[in-house]
Sequence to fold (233 residues):
Amino acid sequence: MKIAIISDIHSNLPALEAALKSIEEKGVDKIFCLGDIVGYGAEPGPCVDLVRGHCDGVIRGNHDEAVAIERGIGYLPSDGQVAAKHNRKALTDEQLAYLSNLPLVLVTDGFTFVHATPQHPESWLRLDSYQISQQQFEHYDTAICFVGHTHIPAVMADRLGVLQVRPGNRYLINVGSVGQPRDHSPWLSYGLFDTETFSYENVRCPYDVGAAAASILAAGLPHRLAERLKTGR
Fold:
């Protein structure tokens, strides 16, 4: 079975459409979304609908929570708060209810899926140190836990010296961001895992960044949210 894992779409419709097209071309069997469907970008409604229609499992992210139930909105960056309020007004009651009812953790098909960390999924911790990352292995039982949240793709094994995904070890895999990459590349990022070969690929694809940036500016959202898409920072 081949699965695709997407995360941190952030209301970026051109990026999501490009990601789904790439996934379809690769003959994927299932798609999972690690949350933050909304926030930052200008087109939350179509993004929610596409995720609902294409994904086999979806997790709630901190921006989904901030938009849907206004919880934690004060902890977002100032630009993120503006976008969250905009997105909340742009969504229907049904779409807001969908986001608010998403689970924080999903364990299925031999994988763990979570937005930020398996240790404290409700606290939105950032895996920004080796020590914090290593602690996560104690908080899930599957061979692999897929995460997002930092927008930076990465693979970490449960022991030193393992540089690529292979059978016999456990892994914490960050699939990066579809809609707002932050690793100095504007290309969208998602994960692709093959259960037969036990292999993982971080897929990068170009998309119409100009269209996504233009929609942000047309919606009256902060200029910085448009500019960062062009630099991947």
Notes: Residues 13-25 form the longest helix (13 residues). The chain has a mean pLDDT of 96. The chain has one domain: 2-231.
